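User: Run a structure prediction on this.
Assistant: Running it now.
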Amino acid sequence: MTDKDIKRKKFDDCNARAKLFFQKNEYSEAIAEWTVCIDLHPGDYLIYSNRSAAYLKNNDPSMALRDADVVIKMQPAFAKGWHRKGAALETLQRYRDAVSVYAKAIELDGGTNPSYTEDYQRVKALADSGRGVADDATRTAFYVQQHQTKAKAAFDEGEFLAAVRLYTKAIELDEKNHVLYSNRSAAYLKAGKHAEALADGKHCLVLCPSYAKGHARIGNALVAQGKLAEAKGAFERGLGLESGNSACAEGLAVVERTVAEQRAKDELWEAQKKVQQEEALLAAQNPETAPLPINTGAHAVCYKCGQIGHEAPQCVKAPVFDKGHAVGYDYCKLCNKIGHKARNCPDRLFTAAPQKRGPS
């Protein structure tokens, strides 16, 4: 005999013993024998199906479910594999999950096995009555909601990075939920992580292109990066999808106001440059009457001399005297200058006092 023949004979012997143990209700021994069969021939889905039944009889539905999943993966059209899974789910009291699995078994079997229909009807009645543990979808929705609630509380308390972590946990459970990405984008933005906020906003729109708030998230992240033109486009696209969206409307208003303020600053700067050019020209023509130089990096206006580029405390054009001499717009009738009154005029201070006339 060849090695292949020896291996096949050992497989058949183990399978036969396993079936005999199963018939005698000696399920642990049957499981052991079928495990040897799987080691010898791991691609035989029927052995996994048999071992799943043995696990279920041995009060181990979790292992029965695992083997049933292997059977379905190997042979998706094998009705009994689906029925094995349904039986394991039923034993685990996951009735809602079992209903859909039994229905799949009936579909593949074509309704020829009446026990499949009976099992389906029994489990459906249990599920409809609200009995059993929650199915996968219900459990997932519950935990997602829990994480969302905690994340919102953290956000409201200013714990933005904690909110990011909680939204991330929710996303791990429901990675197709575009709202979770939108909310995490807002948390990232508040935490100062602008690139991450932008990435989440974009992924939100990948999952749901019609979600107007996703455009608002992108716009807010672009504003934080100083990309106002791109942000304006994002807000406008969001309003195109939902004209009454407050997030997009508020974001667009911020952009337009910021652009207007920047334009005003630019216009003021251009005006100042023009004044500087004119003064430079006058200085070149008549140096003696040239105005004081202006600090080109400042926008301040001096209330003493009326020029821009410095403030009054730095003004070198107005006379500076001791306390009481520099009084803003005070006008001296004696010397015809501003900055002091006649009684404090330096011309008067340094002029000899007139002699008093005595009686003649």
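The two ends are 162 Å apart (CA to CA).
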